[in-house]
Amino acid sequence: MSFPGVPGGRSVPGGSDMAGMSSQEQQIVKTMQATMESCAGKTVMSGVMGFALGGAFGLFMSSMSYDTPLSAQGQQLTNLPLRQQLSRGFRDMGSRSYSSAKNFGLIGAMFAGTECCIESYRAKSDWKNGVSAGCITGGTLGAKAGPQAAAIGCVGFAAFSAAIDAFMRRQTD
To answer: What local confidence, expressed as pLDDT, does residue 1 receive?
Structure first.
């Protein structure tokens, strides 16, 4: 059995070369491409991937908070039996991991959806889409804290987006 894009497999560059595929396989490939090219598909994929990355990041960061018994929380924890220490530690790691996962998923979905909508509206794929999406995402996330926080969020996310876009679009020599 061979797969498209795998060495020795059938190639599907851009989805136009589907020779040798059955009509059902061709329909599946077309459906997958249409889903991944739609704004809804990009938004969902970015949210899911952000959720996964945020969960891993939250798990790592929460595990680092129990590195010393010198803090007040660490001293309280060391007085408990081992089973309760582990139970509290895992429960806390799970809740922090889930919290980070939700935040990363939300940010990823908001940014990708906004960028896709802007790109569809402008009919151009350039750095302005990412900067605009970053500003909208950052401003929306900071809006609850007031107009100053919204402005700072807008500028911060836009600058970060511009830096990442410049890095990703640079020419390789």
So the answer is: 46
